[in-house]
Fold Magnesium transporter.
Amino acid sequence: MAELLPELIEEVVSAPERGEQDNVVALVAAQDTDDVALLLESLPLEQRLKVWEGIPKRRRLDVLVAMRGDPRETLISATDISEWEAIFFEVDAEQLLELSDSLPNALVDKALDAMDKQQRQYFTDASQFSDDEIGHWLSQDPLVLPLNAKVRDALRLIRRDVPTHADTIFLVNRAGQFSEAVKLTNVMGLPEHVPLVDLSEEVFDTINASDELTTASLMVQRSGFASLPVVDEQNKVLGRLDVSTASELLNEFYERQIMATAGMDEDEDLFSSVPKSAKNRAVWLGINLLTAFLASGFIGMFEATLQQVVALAVLMPIVASMGGIAGSQTLTLMIRGLALGQVTGSNVKALLKKELSVGGLNGVVWALVIGCIAYFWFSDAMLGLVICLAILLNIVAAAAAGVVVPMVLNKFNIDPALSGSVILTTVTDIVGFVAFLGLGTLFLL
Protein backbone atom coordinates (compact mmCIF):
# COMPACT_ATOMS: atom_id res chain seq x y z
CA MET A 1 0.00 0.00 0.00
CA ALA A 2 2.88 2.41 0.71
CA GLU A 3 3.69 2.38 -3.01
CA LEU A 4 0.06 2.80 -4.12
CA LEU A 5 -1.01 5.35 -1.49
CA PRO A 6 0.32 8.45 -3.30
CA GLU A 7 -1.49 7.37 -6.48
CA LEU A 8 -4.75 6.78 -4.60
CA ILE A 9 -4.49 10.15 -2.86
CA GLU A 10 -4.04 11.83 -6.24
CA GLU A 11 -7.00 9.89 -7.67
CA VAL A 12 -9.30 10.93 -4.82
CA VAL A 13 -8.23 14.57 -4.69
CA SER A 14 -8.56 15.07 -8.45
CA ALA A 15 -11.71 12.94 -8.87
CA PRO A 16 -14.23 15.84 -8.59
CA GLU A 17 -12.49 17.75 -11.40
CA ARG A 18 -12.66 14.66 -13.64
CA GLY A 19 -16.25 13.85 -12.67
CA GLU A 20 -15.21 10.40 -11.38
CA GLN A 21 -16.01 10.78 -7.69
CA ASP A 22 -18.27 7.70 -7.46
CA ASN A 23 -15.83 5.46 -9.36
CA VAL A 24 -12.89 6.48 -7.19
CA VAL A 25 -14.84 5.99 -3.97
CA ALA A 26 -15.81 2.49 -5.12
CA LEU A 27 -12.14 1.78 -5.89
CA VAL A 28 -11.11 2.88 -2.41
CA ALA A 29 -13.86 0.86 -0.73
CA ALA A 30 -12.47 -2.28 -2.37
CA GLN A 31 -9.05 -1.90 -0.70
CA ASP A 32 -7.92 -3.72 2.45
CA THR A 33 -9.09 -2.28 5.76
CA ASP A 34 -5.67 -0.98 6.85
CA ASP A 35 -5.15 0.58 3.42
CA VAL A 36 -8.50 2.36 3.56
CA ALA A 37 -7.73 3.67 7.06
CA LEU A 38 -4.34 5.03 6.00
CA LEU A 39 -5.83 6.67 2.92
CA LEU A 40 -8.60 8.36 4.91
CA GLU A 41 -5.99 9.80 7.28
CA SER A 42 -4.15 11.23 4.27
CA LEU A 43 -7.07 13.16 2.80
CA PRO A 44 -8.26 16.72 3.48
CA LEU A 45 -11.50 16.70 5.47
CA GLU A 46 -13.87 17.30 2.56
CA GLN A 47 -12.52 14.40 0.48
CA ARG A 48 -12.24 12.22 3.60
CA LEU A 49 -15.94 12.56 4.36
CA LYS A 50 -16.94 11.81 0.76
CA VAL A 51 -14.88 8.62 0.73
CA TRP A 52 -16.25 7.65 4.14
CA GLU A 53 -19.80 7.84 2.81
CA GLY A 54 -18.88 5.23 0.20
CA ILE A 55 -17.44 2.71 2.68
CA PRO A 56 -19.97 -0.10 3.32
CA LYS A 57 -21.38 0.05 6.85
CA ARG A 58 -20.27 -3.53 7.55
CA ARG A 59 -16.63 -2.45 7.05
CA ARG A 60 -16.70 0.90 8.85
CA LEU A 61 -16.04 -0.48 12.31
CA ASP A 62 -12.81 -2.21 11.24
CA VAL A 63 -11.69 0.94 9.41
CA LEU A 64 -12.27 3.10 12.49
CA VAL A 65 -10.32 0.66 14.66
CA ALA A 66 -7.36 0.85 12.26
CA MET A 67 -7.25 4.67 12.27
CA ARG A 68 -5.51 7.16 14.55
CA GLY A 69 -7.58 8.93 17.17
CA ASP A 70 -7.88 12.43 15.69
CA PRO A 71 -8.90 11.52 12.11
CA ARG A 72 -11.15 8.78 13.50
CA GLU A 73 -13.03 11.35 15.59
CA THR A 74 -13.80 13.48 12.53
CA LEU A 75 -15.54 10.49 10.93
CA ILE A 76 -17.38 9.53 14.11
CA SER A 77 -18.73 13.08 14.41
CA ALA A 78 -19.87 13.05 10.79
CA THR A 79 -21.70 9.72 11.05
CA ASP A 80 -25.45 9.92 11.60
CA ILE A 81 -26.75 8.32 14.80
CA SER A 82 -29.10 6.13 12.77
CA GLU A 83 -26.15 4.37 11.08
CA TRP A 84 -24.47 3.09 14.24
CA GLU A 85 -26.73 0.09 14.72
CA ALA A 86 -25.49 -1.35 11.42
CA ILE A 87 -21.87 -0.33 12.15
CA PHE A 88 -21.92 -2.03 15.57
CA PHE A 89 -23.28 -5.29 14.18
CA GLU A 90 -20.99 -8.05 15.57
CA VAL A 91 -18.80 -5.54 17.47
CA ASP A 92 -16.52 -7.27 19.98
CA ALA A 93 -14.81 -6.17 23.18
CA GLU A 94 -11.37 -5.61 21.61
CA GLN A 95 -12.80 -3.29 18.96
CA LEU A 96 -14.77 -1.27 21.49
CA LEU A 97 -11.74 -0.95 23.77
CA GLU A 98 -9.80 0.55 20.86
CA LEU A 99 -12.61 2.98 20.04
CA SER A 100 -13.97 3.84 23.49
CA ASP A 101 -11.79 6.93 23.99
CA SER A 102 -13.08 8.36 20.71
CA LEU A 103 -16.77 7.51 21.16
CA PRO A 104 -19.36 9.53 23.11
CA ASN A 105 -20.80 7.64 26.09
CA ALA A 106 -24.11 7.17 24.27
CA LEU A 107 -22.37 5.29 21.44
CA VAL A 108 -20.35 3.18 23.89
CA ASP A 109 -23.64 2.13 25.50
CA LYS A 110 -25.11 1.36 22.08
CA ALA A 111 -22.12 -0.84 21.25
CA LEU A 112 -22.42 -2.67 24.58
CA ASP A 113 -26.08 -3.33 23.86
CA ALA A 114 -25.08 -4.94 20.56
CA MET A 115 -22.67 -7.37 22.29
CA ASP A 116 -23.46 -10.74 23.79
CA LYS A 117 -23.02 -11.30 27.53
CA GLN A 118 -19.53 -12.76 27.20
CA GLN A 119 -18.17 -9.87 25.13
CA ARG A 120 -19.65 -7.34 27.57
CA GLN A 121 -17.87 -9.13 30.40
CA TYR A 122 -14.59 -9.07 28.45
CA PHE A 123 -15.00 -5.32 27.97
CA THR A 124 -15.75 -4.77 31.66
CA ASP A 125 -12.76 -6.85 32.75
CA ALA A 126 -10.33 -5.07 30.40
CA SER A 127 -11.67 -1.63 31.37
CA GLN A 128 -10.47 -2.23 34.93
CA PHE A 129 -6.94 -1.68 33.66
CA SER A 130 -5.59 1.64 32.42
CA ASP A 131 -4.63 1.95 28.76
CA ASP A 132 -0.92 1.80 29.64
CA GLU A 133 -1.36 -1.61 31.32
CA ILE A 134 -1.33 -4.72 29.17
CA GLY A 135 -4.52 -6.06 30.75
CA HIS A 136 -6.37 -3.41 28.78
CA TRP A 137 -5.16 -4.81 25.44
CA LEU A 138 -5.01 -8.59 25.88
CA SER A 139 -6.75 -11.03 23.51
CA GLN A 140 -9.54 -13.05 25.06
CA ASP A 141 -9.07 -16.17 22.91
CA PRO A 142 -6.29 -18.33 24.44
CA LEU A 143 -6.11 -22.07 23.84
CA VAL A 144 -6.70 -23.42 27.35
CA LEU A 145 -7.02 -26.99 28.66
CA PRO A 146 -6.99 -28.50 32.18
CA LEU A 147 -3.73 -29.76 33.62
CA ASN A 148 -4.77 -33.41 33.24
CA ALA A 149 -5.63 -33.09 29.50
CA LYS A 150 -4.18 -35.52 26.96
CA VAL A 151 -3.14 -35.32 23.33
CA ARG A 152 -6.65 -36.32 22.20
CA ASP A 153 -8.05 -33.23 23.99
CA ALA A 154 -5.53 -30.99 22.32
CA LEU A 155 -6.33 -32.36 18.85
CA ARG A 156 -10.05 -31.86 19.48
CA LEU A 157 -9.39 -28.26 20.55
CA ILE A 158 -7.25 -27.54 17.51
CA ARG A 159 -9.85 -28.95 15.11
CA ARG A 160 -12.45 -26.51 16.44
CA ASP A 161 -10.42 -23.34 15.97
CA VAL A 162 -6.87 -21.98 16.26
CA PRO A 163 -6.70 -18.19 16.78
CA THR A 164 -4.20 -16.14 14.81
CA HIS A 165 -0.69 -16.20 16.29
CA ALA A 166 -1.51 -19.01 18.73
CA ASP A 167 1.24 -21.64 18.83
CA THR A 168 0.79 -22.97 22.38
CA ILE A 169 -1.86 -24.46 24.62
CA PHE A 170 -1.99 -23.12 28.17
CA LEU A 171 -2.60 -25.74 30.86
CA VAL A 172 -4.42 -24.54 33.98
CA ASN A 173 -5.34 -26.09 37.32
CA ARG A 174 -8.86 -26.32 38.68
CA ALA A 175 -8.72 -22.72 39.88
CA GLY A 176 -7.86 -21.51 36.38
CA GLN A 177 -4.28 -20.71 37.34
CA PHE A 178 -1.56 -21.07 34.74
CA SER A 179 0.63 -24.16 35.20
CA GLU A 180 2.29 -25.26 31.93
CA ALA A 181 2.45 -24.51 28.22
CA VAL A 182 2.59 -26.99 25.34
CA LYS A 183 3.59 -26.10 21.78
CA LEU A 184 1.11 -27.23 19.13
CA THR A 185 3.89 -28.74 17.05
CA ASN A 186 4.81 -31.07 19.93
CA VAL A 187 1.32 -32.55 19.93
CA MET A 188 1.20 -33.62 16.30
CA GLY A 189 1.73 -37.30 15.53
CA LEU A 190 1.77 -38.53 19.14
CA PRO A 191 -0.51 -41.23 20.65
CA GLU A 192 -3.78 -39.74 21.89
CA HIS A 193 -3.33 -41.05 25.46
CA VAL A 194 -0.08 -39.11 26.12
CA PRO A 195 -0.57 -36.49 28.91
CA LEU A 196 0.08 -32.95 27.70
CA VAL A 197 1.98 -32.10 30.84
CA ASP A 198 4.70 -34.52 29.66
CA LEU A 199 5.18 -32.31 26.56
CA SER A 200 5.29 -28.94 28.34
CA GLU A 201 8.00 -26.33 27.89
CA GLU A 202 10.70 -26.21 30.53
CA VAL A 203 10.79 -22.40 30.55
CA PHE A 204 7.75 -20.33 29.68
CA ASP A 205 7.11 -16.73 30.80
CA THR A 206 3.83 -15.24 31.90
CA ILE A 207 2.77 -11.60 31.81
CA ASN A 208 0.98 -9.88 34.68
CA ALA A 209 -2.07 -7.93 33.55
CA SER A 210 -0.83 -4.83 35.39
CA ASP A 211 2.54 -4.84 33.58
CA GLU A 212 3.36 -1.75 31.53
CA LEU A 213 2.44 -2.41 27.90
CA THR A 214 5.89 -1.81 26.36
CA THR A 215 7.55 -4.12 28.88
CA ALA A 216 4.99 -6.84 28.20
CA SER A 217 5.26 -6.38 24.43
CA LEU A 218 9.03 -6.72 24.50
CA MET A 219 8.66 -9.92 26.54
CA VAL A 220 6.53 -11.43 23.76
CA GLN A 221 8.90 -10.33 21.00
CA ARG A 222 11.88 -11.82 22.81
CA SER A 223 10.15 -15.01 24.00
CA GLY A 224 10.39 -17.00 20.77
CA PHE A 225 6.66 -17.82 21.03
CA ALA A 226 3.75 -16.35 19.09
CA SER A 227 1.93 -15.39 22.30
CA LEU A 228 2.28 -15.44 26.08
CA PRO A 229 -0.45 -15.86 28.73
CA VAL A 230 -1.63 -12.79 30.65
CA VAL A 231 -2.48 -13.56 34.28
CA ASP A 232 -3.85 -11.66 37.27
CA GLU A 233 -2.31 -11.37 40.75
CA GLN A 234 -3.55 -14.89 41.59
CA ASN A 235 -1.92 -16.30 38.42
CA LYS A 236 -5.32 -16.94 36.84
CA VAL A 237 -5.26 -16.80 33.03
CA LEU A 238 -7.14 -13.76 31.73
CA GLY A 239 -6.08 -13.98 28.09
CA ARG A 240 -2.97 -13.73 25.97
CA LEU A 241 -0.73 -11.20 24.25
CA ASP A 242 0.29 -12.21 20.74
CA VAL A 243 3.25 -10.99 18.71
CA SER A 244 1.09 -9.00 16.30
CA THR A 245 -0.56 -6.96 19.06
CA ALA A 246 2.80 -6.56 20.80
CA SER A 247 4.36 -5.17 17.61
CA GLU A 248 1.50 -2.72 17.11
CA LEU A 249 1.78 -1.47 20.68
CA LEU A 250 5.54 -1.00 20.34
CA ASN A 251 5.19 0.79 17.01
CA GLU A 252 2.68 3.17 18.58
CA PHE A 253 5.02 3.70 21.53
CA TYR A 254 8.02 4.58 19.36
CA GLU A 255 5.90 6.85 17.16
CA ARG A 256 4.64 8.55 20.31
CA GLN A 257 8.23 9.09 21.44
CA ILE A 258 9.18 10.67 18.14
CA MET A 259 6.17 12.97 18.09
CA ALA A 260 6.72 13.87 21.73
CA THR A 261 10.13 15.35 20.91
CA ALA A 262 8.19 18.17 19.25
CA GLY A 263 5.53 18.30 21.95
CA MET A 264 2.93 16.59 19.78
CA ASP A 265 0.60 13.58 19.99
CA GLU A 266 0.95 10.51 17.75
CA ASP A 267 -2.79 10.79 17.04
CA GLU A 268 -2.34 14.22 15.42
CA ASP A 269 -4.34 14.44 12.21
CA LEU A 270 -2.62 15.77 9.10
CA PHE A 271 -5.79 17.74 8.33
CA SER A 272 -7.32 18.41 11.72
CA SER A 273 -9.00 21.80 12.16
CA VAL A 274 -6.78 24.84 12.51
CA PRO A 275 -7.99 25.74 16.05
CA LYS A 276 -7.47 22.17 17.26
CA SER A 277 -4.00 21.89 15.74
CA ALA A 278 -3.06 25.28 17.15
CA LYS A 279 -4.33 24.31 20.59
CA ASN A 280 -2.44 21.01 20.55
CA ARG A 281 0.83 22.76 19.77
CA ALA A 282 0.38 25.94 21.83
CA VAL A 283 1.31 24.30 25.13
CA TRP A 284 4.76 23.30 23.90
CA LEU A 285 5.27 26.77 22.46
CA GLY A 286 4.44 28.18 25.89
CA ILE A 287 6.95 25.88 27.59
CA ASN A 288 9.57 26.85 25.03
CA LEU A 289 8.82 30.50 25.71
CA LEU A 290 9.89 30.06 29.33
CA THR A 291 13.26 28.60 28.33
CA ALA A 292 13.73 31.33 25.75
CA PHE A 293 13.21 34.08 28.33
CA LEU A 294 15.68 32.30 30.59
CA ALA A 295 18.33 32.56 27.87
CA SER A 296 17.43 36.21 27.36
CA GLY A 297 17.93 36.86 31.06
CA PHE A 298 21.55 35.73 30.83
CA ILE A 299 22.17 37.90 27.80
CA GLY A 300 20.73 40.81 29.74
CA MET A 301 23.62 40.52 32.17
CA PHE A 302 25.74 42.33 29.57
CA GLU A 303 23.39 45.34 29.39
CA ALA A 304 26.07 47.92 30.09
CA THR A 305 28.25 46.61 27.27
CA LEU A 306 25.53 46.41 24.67
CA GLN A 307 24.32 49.96 25.46
CA GLN A 308 21.87 51.24 22.84
CA VAL A 309 21.02 47.80 21.34
CA VAL A 310 20.70 46.04 24.67
CA ALA A 311 16.96 45.40 24.34
CA LEU A 312 17.34 43.90 20.88
CA ALA A 313 20.18 41.64 22.00
CA VAL A 314 18.27 40.47 25.08
CA LEU A 315 15.15 39.56 23.08
CA MET A 316 16.82 38.04 20.00
CA PRO A 317 16.92 34.43 21.29
CA ILE A 318 13.15 34.52 21.86
CA VAL A 319 12.46 35.27 18.20
CA ALA A 320 14.71 32.49 16.94
CA SER A 321 13.57 29.96 19.53
CA MET A 322 9.84 30.45 18.95
CA GLY A 323 10.31 30.03 15.21
CA GLY A 324 12.45 26.94 15.75
CA ILE A 325 9.93 25.05 17.89
CA ALA A 326 7.00 25.98 15.64
CA GLY A 327 8.90 24.76 12.60
CA SER A 328 9.98 21.53 14.29
CA GLN A 329 6.34 20.66 15.04
CA THR A 330 5.38 20.96 11.38
CA LEU A 331 8.58 19.19 10.30
CA THR A 332 7.88 16.21 12.59
CA LEU A 333 4.35 15.85 11.23
CA MET A 334 5.67 16.03 7.66
CA ILE A 335 8.40 13.45 8.23
CA ARG A 336 5.84 10.98 9.59
CA GLY A 337 3.53 11.65 6.66
CA LEU A 338 6.31 11.18 4.11
CA ALA A 339 7.48 7.96 5.78
CA LEU A 340 3.97 6.51 5.53
CA GLY A 341 3.40 7.81 2.00
CA GLN A 342 0.58 10.09 3.23
CA VAL A 343 2.06 13.33 1.86
CA THR A 344 2.26 13.76 -1.91
CA GLY A 345 2.22 16.50 -4.51
CA SER A 346 -1.56 16.14 -4.64
CA ASN A 347 -2.27 17.07 -1.02
CA VAL A 348 0.78 19.14 -0.07
CA LYS A 349 -0.91 22.43 -1.11
CA ALA A 350 -3.84 21.75 1.22
CA LEU A 351 -1.41 20.79 3.96
CA LEU A 352 0.69 23.92 3.41
CA LYS A 353 -2.45 26.08 3.61
CA LYS A 354 -3.48 24.40 6.85
CA GLU A 355 -0.01 24.72 8.42
CA LEU A 356 0.23 28.40 7.45
CA SER A 357 -3.14 28.96 9.11
CA VAL A 358 -1.96 27.18 12.27
CA GLY A 359 1.25 29.22 12.22
CA GLY A 360 -0.73 32.42 11.73
CA LEU A 361 -3.06 31.67 14.63
CA ASN A 362 -0.29 30.66 17.03
CA GLY A 363 1.85 33.52 15.72
CA VAL A 364 -0.79 36.13 16.57
CA VAL A 365 -1.42 34.69 20.04
CA TRP A 366 2.21 34.40 21.08
CA ALA A 367 3.28 37.61 19.34
CA LEU A 368 0.79 39.52 21.49
CA VAL A 369 1.91 37.72 24.66
CA ILE A 370 5.60 38.37 24.01
CA GLY A 371 4.97 41.93 22.82
CA CYS A 372 3.17 42.78 26.05
CA ILE A 373 5.92 41.21 28.15
CA ALA A 374 8.58 43.17 26.23
CA TYR A 375 6.63 46.39 26.71
CA PHE A 376 6.33 45.96 30.50
CA TRP A 377 9.92 44.70 30.77
CA PHE A 378 11.55 47.66 28.99
CA SER A 379 8.73 50.25 29.20
CA ASP A 380 8.99 50.72 25.43
CA ALA A 381 5.83 50.35 23.33
CA MET A 382 7.73 50.48 20.01
CA LEU A 383 10.02 47.67 21.14
CA GLY A 384 6.95 45.59 21.99
CA LEU A 385 5.56 46.22 18.49
CA VAL A 386 8.88 45.26 16.84
CA ILE A 387 9.15 41.89 18.58
CA CYS A 388 5.43 41.27 18.09
CA LEU A 389 5.78 41.60 14.30
CA ALA A 390 9.04 39.61 14.24
CA ILE A 391 7.51 36.70 16.18
CA LEU A 392 4.50 36.58 13.86
CA LEU A 393 6.66 36.61 10.72
CA ASN A 394 9.04 33.97 12.01
CA ILE A 395 6.36 31.50 13.17
CA VAL A 396 4.55 31.74 9.83
CA ALA A 397 7.86 31.35 7.98
CA ALA A 398 8.70 28.36 10.17
CA ALA A 399 5.40 26.69 9.29
CA ALA A 400 6.08 27.18 5.59
CA ALA A 401 9.63 25.88 5.93
CA GLY A 402 8.41 22.89 7.93
CA VAL A 403 6.32 21.81 4.93
CA VAL A 404 8.59 22.87 2.07
CA VAL A 405 11.99 21.75 3.42
CA PRO A 406 11.15 18.03 3.84
CA MET A 407 9.33 17.96 0.49
CA VAL A 408 12.38 19.39 -1.31
CA LEU A 409 14.76 17.05 0.51
CA ASN A 410 12.55 14.08 -0.28
CA LYS A 411 12.49 15.05 -3.97
CA PHE A 412 16.30 14.88 -4.03
CA ASN A 413 16.28 11.54 -2.15
CA ILE A 414 17.70 13.09 1.00
CA ASP A 415 16.25 11.77 4.27
CA PRO A 416 14.34 14.68 5.89
CA ALA A 417 14.60 13.00 9.29
CA LEU A 418 18.38 13.33 9.20
CA SER A 419 18.89 16.80 7.74
CA GLY A 420 15.51 18.53 7.90
CA SER A 421 15.93 19.94 11.40
CA VAL A 422 19.34 21.43 10.59
CA ILE A 423 18.03 23.29 7.54
CA LEU A 424 14.85 24.32 9.33
CA THR A 425 16.79 25.78 12.27
CA THR A 426 18.97 27.74 9.86
CA VAL A 427 15.93 29.14 8.06
CA THR A 428 14.12 30.16 11.25
CA ASP A 429 17.26 31.72 12.74
CA ILE A 430 17.95 33.79 9.62
CA VAL A 431 14.33 34.90 9.18
CA GLY A 432 13.96 35.64 12.88
CA PHE A 433 17.15 37.70 13.23
CA VAL A 434 16.70 39.58 9.95
CA ALA A 435 13.07 40.38 10.74
CA PHE A 436 13.77 41.44 14.30
CA LEU A 437 16.94 43.42 13.72
CA GLY A 438 15.62 44.88 10.48
CA LEU A 439 12.43 46.12 12.15
CA GLY A 440 14.46 47.31 15.10
CA THR A 441 16.68 49.35 12.80
CA LEU A 442 13.65 50.94 11.16
CA PHE A 443 11.68 51.79 14.29
CA LEU A 444 14.19 52.11 17.12
CA LEU A 445 17.42 53.61 15.75
Q: What stands out?
A: Strands lie at 144-146, 168-172, 178-183, 207-208, 227-231, 237-242. The longest helix spans residues 348-378. Residues 96 and 111 are 7 Å apart (CA to CA). The chain has three domains: 4-132, 144-262, 274-444.
